[in-house]
Amino acid sequence: MKCPGGLIGACQVDHNSKKGYNLGYVQSNPQIAANGELSLQYSGGSECHHQFNRSVRIVFSCSKRMVRDGVTTSKCGER
């Protein structure tokens, strides 16, 4: 299985057909919503069902817990 080359943002892999599909290219800078949510949007990817082009939105989130060296902590840096 292989993803298309180039500056793509993400890749979808079909394990049955062993094909990789481009999920899109960077369309803008990272966005910060009013609630503080950080996201990246990629669009203009490979054709899907002869109708649409694939796209993906990646949303970053923070956890109140952190796992470091297999140990879960409630605050960064604590053990």
What does this structure look like?
It is a single chain. By secondary structure, the chain is mostly beta strands. It is built from no helices and ten strands. Strands 3, 4, 5 and 8 form a four-stranded antiparallel β-sheet that branches.
What's a concise summary of this model?
This protein has 79 residues and is an all-beta fold.
Proportion of residues in β-strands: 35-45%
Largest sheet: 4 strands, antiparallel
Helix content: under 10%
User: How far from one another are the termini?
Assistant: 40 Å
Query: Number of helix segments?
Result: 0
Please state the structural category: mainly beta
Number of strands: 10
The H-and-E topology, N to C, reads as EEEEEEEEEE
Q: Tell me, rounded to a whole number, the average pLDDT.
A: 82
Uncertain runs are none
Identify the notable features of this structure and list them briefly.
mainly beta, 0% helix, 42% strand, extended
